[in-house]
Structure formats: C-alpha cells, structure tokens
Amino acid sequence: QVQLVESGGGLVQAGGSLRLSCAASGRTFSSYTVGWFRQAPGKEREFVAAMRSSNGNTYYANSVKGRFTISRDNAKNTVYLQMISLKPEDTAVYYCAADSVSNILVSVAAKYDYWGKGTQVTVSS
Questions:
Q1: From CA 94, how far away is CA 26, in angstroms rounded?
Q2: Distance between CA atoms of 69 and 81, rounded to whole angstroms?
Q3: 10 Å Cβ neighbour count for 90?
Q4: Whether pLDDT at 3 is above 90
Q5: 52 CB-near residues (< 8 Å, 6+ apart)
Q6: What confidence category does residue 75 fall into, taking pLDDT thresholds of 50, 70 and 90?
Q7: Pairing between β-strand 114-115 and β-strand 119-124 as defined by DSSP bridges
Q8: Can you tell me the distance from the alpha carbon of 97 to that of 85, in angstroms, rounded to the nearest whole number?
Q9: Which residues of 98-122 are buried (b: 16+ CB within 10 A; e: fewer)?
Q10: How far is the C-alpha of 13 from the C-alpha of 113, rounded, in Å?
C-alpha cells in the first residue's frame, strides 16, 4: 500500500514555473509506475505525464510536451512534476498516482490504484 501527498501548487503568472512534489509514505514505490493527472472545473480528469519504473520511459500529453518534466527520487520516495512556461489553460487540480503493475496503460486514470488528494495550480494571464 502507498499513500500519496501532493504539494507545490499555487498561483503563478503565465510563463512562470512550478515544481510539484508527490511524497509517498508507507511502502516504497520505487518499483511502481507513477503518473500525474489534472482536472479543471467542468472537465474530465486528463493525463499529464507518467514514468515507468522498469525502464524509466516517460510519457507526456501533447499539451504539455516540451514544458513539463516528470522525475522521481527513489531515495526520497518522491515523484516530481517540473512545469515551465505555464499557460492559463494549465490551471487545474493536479493529482499524482501510482500503481504496482509495471505495464499498465499509463495514460488511463482508472488503471492506477493509488491517488493523492490533489494540489491546485492556478495560472493567471
């Protein structure tokens, strides 16, 4: 079992940067697939980024590719989402997620067993 807590959200102007953190407690998730999703008001939860533990491959939504970077620090049991060149359309609650199955379809939220409560990111114009 893994418990996840996001942090690092806040208010930033367009063009700014934020780094989100997702700290895992309990059992280490070094072998877990990890991902980030976001949900804006009135919209469905959407995939943002993910990383497989097995090979370190990363995956990004087209809307964030080139601007967001997912990484993990297994020693700290933490996954990060570095966000640069933020746009107002990036405004959403951001959630981290993890799953013990290595080959899940990483962009599908329903495939993840463990979720944080989310952290708000607001990008002003």
A1: 22
A2: 6
A3: 22
A4: yes
A5: 33, 102, 103, 106
A6: confident
A7: unpaired
A8: 23
A9: bbbeeebebbebebbebbbebbebe
A10: 33
CB neighbours (10 Å) of residue 60?
Answer: 18
Pairing of strands 46-51, 58-60: antiparallel
pLDDT tens digits, 23-70: 999 777 788 999 999 999 999 999 999 999 888 899 999 999 999 999
**99 and 114 Cβ atoms separated by less than 8 Å:** yes
For CA atoms 29, 59, 10, 45, the dihedral sign is negative
- Residue-wise pLDDT for 83-122, tens only, equals 999 999 999 999 999 999 888 899 999 999 999 999 999 9
Q: Write the DSSP string, 35-82.
A: EEEEE-TTS--EEEEEE-TTT--EEE-TTTTTTEEEEEETTTTEEEEE
